[in-house]
Structures are given as C-alpha cells and as structure tokens.
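Operator note (shift B, R.M.): manual run for CCA tRNA nucleotidyltransferase requested after the automated queue skipped it. Running by hand, logging everything below so the morning shift can see what happened. Input copied straight from the record, untouched. If output looks odd, do not overwrite the archive copy; leave it for review.
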Amino acid sequence: MTIDLLNRLPVQPWMHADGARRVMRALNAGAPDSARFVGGCVRNALLGLPASDIDIATVWEPEEVIRRMKANNIGVHPTGIEHGTVTAVANNQPYEITTLRRDVSTDGRRATVAFTKDWNEDAQRRDFHVNALYCDLMGNLSDPTGLGISDLREQKIAFIGDADTRLQEDYLRILRFFRFNAWYGSGSLDVEGLSACMRQRAGLDSISVERIWSEFKKLLSAPDPRVVLEAMSQIGVLQFVLPEAIGLDLFNALVALELEEHLKPDPYLRLLSLYPKDMDVVAADVARLKMSNSEKKRLLTTAGDNTSFAKEFSAKEFRRTIYSVGKSVFESRARLAWAVRGREAKHRYWRVLINAVNKYERPIFPISGEHVIAVGVPAGKPVGEVLKRIEQWWIDEDFPLDIALIARQMRIIADEVILREKANSEEDSF
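Run finished. Output pasted below as returned.
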C-alpha cells in the first residue's frame, strides 16, 4: 500500500493525459473546481494501482456538460443522461462525467435522482468511504466523508452512513461489498456491513442475473477470495448467488494451489470448483446466469471433459490427450485434479505437467478435403470419413511429420472407401 499522508496525489499518467486535461479544462473554464476525478481512479492511485476507468464528477447538469464538450470539439454521448451521466471521448479515451446528485427515491435496483452542487451531498449517496474520494487536475484530494483515506490505509470496506439504507438503494451493493473486500480488504470484514448484507440478502432476488454474474465473476478474479466466500456462505449470500454450491473445500484448495504455484487466478475454474460433478447442474446454472456464448463454451467443455488424471501421463499420452481436448480444457482439468490431491500430490510432476501445457503448440494436421478428393474419393460424407480416419491414425502414431508417410496412409484409407462406395453404387444399380 502506498497511501501518502499528504492530501495530494502524486503524478498519475491518466490525470495528465492530453484527453483528461482537455475534458477537465472544458468543465472548469470560467468556474474553477467545477469538476473533479472521483471513485476508482482516485482510490487506485492512492493504492499504487492502475486505473481501469476514469470517472469525473461535476457541478454542471448534463446539458451544460454536453455544450462545453462540443464547444471544445470533444466527442460526447448521453450514455446515462437520466441519471446525470454522459461520456466524453477525448484522444480516444472515454471519460464518464456525472453531475453531482442525491437520491430522491430508490427501489433497490434504480434510483430517481436530483442534481446538486454540493460535493458532500454527492459523496453521501455513494456506497463505500473508499469510493467517495475526489481529486482535481492538480491532484489535490478531497475526502468528504472524512473516512475514505483512513479506510484505505486500514484496508477497511465500510458503507457510508447507514449500511441497510445504502443496500436498499441498490441491492447489488451486497455483492460489491464482498467484491471490494476480496480486492482491497484486509481479510476481516466490517461487522456492521456484513450484518446488513445478511439482513438484506433477499433483495438480491430483484437484481438481474446478468448484473449478479458480472459482479461475482469480478469477485472470483481476486487473488485470494477465500475469506470472503466463507463469509458469504456463513450469512447465506452465497446460496442466493449460487444455490447449487456444494461447499468450499475444493474451491479453497484450488485458490491455495494457485497462490503457492503462482498460477493466474481463473474465475471460471474457481466457479466450477463450487459445483457438484454433475453436467446437468452446471449446464442449468450456466443458462440461469445468462452467460455469454464464450463463457458457456468454456465452462461446459471443461465440465464435460472426462480426461482421467488417475495416473501419470507418458509424453505420448500427454500429446494425444491435449490435442484432442484442447489446451485450455486440459490445463483446467489438470489444475482441478492437482487441487483434489492436495498434500498427497507429487508436486514436481504436476509442475512439469502444467509447464508442458503452457509450452504446448498444437500441431497442424497436414491433410485437407482437397487432398482427399484429389485421390478420387467422392465428395461429401466419404471425404469426411477419410479425413477423420487419417487424422486418428496420425494422432495414434504421435503426429508424424513425414508427409510421404501420411500420404501413403491416406491413400490406403481412401482406396478402402472408394471400393466400398463403388460396391454400394453397383448394388443400388440392381
């Protein structure tokens, strides 16, 4: 942690980028301190972390923000204008600009807001102290709640004001509480916040599954979310998010393995470790959470693979198996198998195996349908049959590189198919 005791941020690349300067100068023209950076970019800068998104808060209402951007030849889009948000694009970098606001009413999913020019009022409607930090273009910090910087220093994630009220404004904040603890917390969760999450957990039923999955995926991507998942389970939140979860034993073992072996966290594999070994359960939940097609494919192909790691692979078996199931699936199943074995695992063998996966380059099958047709095989299913059989021979022979040898074998298989097709044709003629 790199939090400075001074109320000023050190120079940040995103703060001094040409695009940021253009946007901030347009907002502050004729009225200094009309705009400040806010939220994640300020928080991460204090922690010495890169900023993924640049958010700006301003006293100007959306129409005035749009006017100022256009007057300075800055692209602007009304991405959430009903809540006071527009997105400016300067030097190919988006900047989300939101008018200072206060909540008039909320239903746990969306809020009706009123604009304000009071920075303190805007801060009070945000979720956590650590997200209610502002700074100007010179890096001068503002901490309206008085607890944002100290909470960051203590690695404490605490709601602003009454925790139940903050959650009732947007029940997704329940998962944000756990996600922020996983990424920025010290391990021990704020008791008041945790208790409020338990009391309000039923509110998650009103949140779309897409938003829930997006938040949970970010949580699972944290370096070590074991304590957080345990807390979610103890107060019943995990059961709301993932009713099919069967316990945390394999999950905890998998995360421990990733940390010990310096393996990159894999949120999809971590999710899979929470499910029972039942393809139907996994498929049903993938559909329920409305995952993207690529996410569905990743989870279902991994869950559906039956590669056995009961015994050690020979070099030939390794090449044949990884070619058949794919690099991603093989590594995922290997990690899970390694985690299952835990202390009993022969770690050197598994390290060598994972290292071999990372270095693996899939050989290219040198035969195409054009080659098969060129030797006289009729187009259509017969060509597919020859391709399938010759590829299986190639795999079984450990991927030989001798093109002449492959061509001879292809010809042998092709001749068999040609003779069969000819015989079938003659029978049909009778």
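Quick read of the result: The longest strand covers residues 93-99. The beta strands are 35-38, 55-58, 75-80, 85-90, 93-99, 101-106, 111-115, 134-135, 141-142.
Leaving this for review. - R.M.
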